[in-house]
């Protein structure tokens, strides 16, 4: 346990020890950590799994410490716990993902009642930007846990050549209320009343611009075509390596275009998977070392299964949707992992007494 004469000194010590993400943190005093442990409803010493590359146990207490530092409220703890439980599963390839030179970061997607019950996680305007405390704090808690429990250190064990801002925090909810499709977690086999977190190692969002025109008979086809360009252009690992997962965040207007064309989420995925194909010759023109001596006309699919394309609805309506290509490596080829969020073990913590604040 570190000790310091003041919170200001403690903050500087945490920075000097390499225990922050480079931004100021809330000092994880024993009282603050204990408060979030109690909120989790779990014993402090309970293990949530092993975090690589350091191979350390992610105990509830250690995760609560990361959550305090990230600025989490007690309400956020069920999602933080579930996100940790997701990324420590073998299928997530956390150790390999932490060490890759690629810019991948865990994108955390929240579905179900936890969106409101856990601090109001946003899926609307600017959900991946500033101004949404739950989104920012939950995603940041996961990153601090990956650093301080998992041992990821830039240029030492985290070998991302440049990284991206999602490595600070990368969390949003699906906008289920403005989606014409069933919720993402329902499409993954969960009940509508269940709360679920889905985590996938992803690049930063790639903006996809499309101005819909209801008078065009191929309106939906045009939108799918530009989404596929974003997902599988020859600069992406999806196109070159293949076999990984990816995320498509449709804004409500774009989702409506596809729904009005009679496309379900399953059909959208299938259509996108067909569009995300490249010939060996196309790939070889730029990345000859990745294709070997295969026939130039042979078709390579960017996705082994259309279900590996996560299609969700989020953000404000308008011209822009987002796609997040992925790394496509590791033993499990960078697949997404889902985990139920347990709300019935969560303990409500009484609020603190009032203080005066000068702003």
How would you describe this structure to a colleague?
This protein has 359 residues and is of the alpha+beta class. It is built from 13 helices and twelve strands. It has helices at 7-16, 30-40, 60-70, 77-87, 94-99, 114-117, 133-148, 184-187, 219-232, 237-240, 252-260, 265-275, 280-287; strands spanning 47-51, 56-59, 105-111, 171-173, 196-202, 206-209, 246-250, 277-279, 299-301, 309-313, 320-324, 337-340. The strands form four sheets. The chain has a four-stranded mixed sheet. Strand 1 (47-51) and strand 2 form a beta hairpin. Helix 2 (30-40) packs across helix 3 (60-70), helix 3 crosses helix 4 (77-87) and helix 4 crosses helix 7 (133-148). The protein is globular, with a radius of gyration of 21 Å. The model has no long low-confidence stretch (mean pLDDT 95).
Question: Can you describe this structure in just a few lines?
Answer:
The chain has a 4-stranded mixed sheet with strand order 4-3-5-12. It has a 4-stranded mixed sheet with strand order 6-11-7-10. It has a two-stranded antiparallel ribbon with strand order 1-2. It is an alpha+beta fold and 359 residues long.
In which order are the strands of the major sheet placed? 4-3-5-12
Approximate shape: globular
Low-confidence stretches: none
Number of helices: 13
What does the largest sheet look like?
Answer: 4 strands, mixed
Strand content: 15-25%
Class computed from helices, strands and strand pairing: alpha+beta
Q: What is the H/E order?
A: HHEEHHHEHHEHEEHHEHHEHEEEE
The helix content is 25-40%
């Amino acid at each position: 346990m570190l000790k310091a004469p003041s919170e200001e000194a403690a903050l500087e010590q945490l920075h000097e020890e390499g225990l922050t993400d480079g931004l100021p943190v809330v000092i994880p005093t024993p009282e603050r950590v204990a408060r979030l442990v109690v909120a989790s409803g779990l014993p402090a010493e309970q293990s949530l799994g092993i975090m690589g590359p350091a191979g350390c146990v992610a105990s509830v207490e250690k995760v609560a410490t990361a959550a305090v530092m990230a600025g989490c409220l007690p309400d956020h703890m069920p999602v933080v716990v579930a996100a940790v439980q997701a990324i420590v599963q073998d299928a997530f390839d956390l150790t390999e993902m932490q060490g890759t030179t690629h810019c991948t970061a865990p994108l955390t997607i929240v579905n179900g009642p936890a969106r409101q019950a856990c601090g109001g996680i946003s899926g609307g305007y600017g959900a991946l930007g500033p101004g949404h405390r739950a989104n920012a704090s939950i995603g940041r808690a996961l990153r601090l846990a990956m650093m301080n429990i998992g041992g990821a250190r830039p240029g030492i064990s985290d070998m991302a050549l440049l990284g991206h801002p999602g490595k600070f925090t990368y969390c949003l909810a699906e906008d289920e209320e403005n989606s014409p499709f069933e919720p993402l977690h329902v499409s993954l086999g969960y009940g509508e009343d269940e709360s679920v977190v889905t985590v996938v190692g992803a690049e930063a969002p790639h903006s996809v611009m499309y101005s819909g025109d209801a008078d065009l008979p191929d309106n939906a086809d045009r939108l799918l075509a530009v989404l596929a360009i974003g997902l599988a252009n020859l600069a992406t690992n999806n196109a070159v390596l293949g076999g990984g997962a990816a995320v498509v965040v449709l804004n409500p207007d774009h989702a409506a275009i596809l729904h009005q064309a009679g496309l379900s989420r399953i059909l959208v995925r299938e259509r996108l998977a067909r569009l995300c194909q490249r010939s060996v010759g196309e790939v070889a023109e730029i990345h000859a070392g990745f294709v070997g001596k295969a026939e130039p006309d042979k078709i390579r699919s960017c996705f082994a299964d259309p279900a590996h394309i996560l299609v969700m609805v989020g953000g404000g309506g308008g011209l822009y949707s987002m796609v997040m290509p992925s790394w496509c490596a590791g033993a499990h080829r960078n697949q997404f992992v889902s985990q139920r969020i347990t709300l019935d073990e969560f303990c409500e913590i009484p609020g603190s007494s009032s203080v005066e604040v000068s702003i």
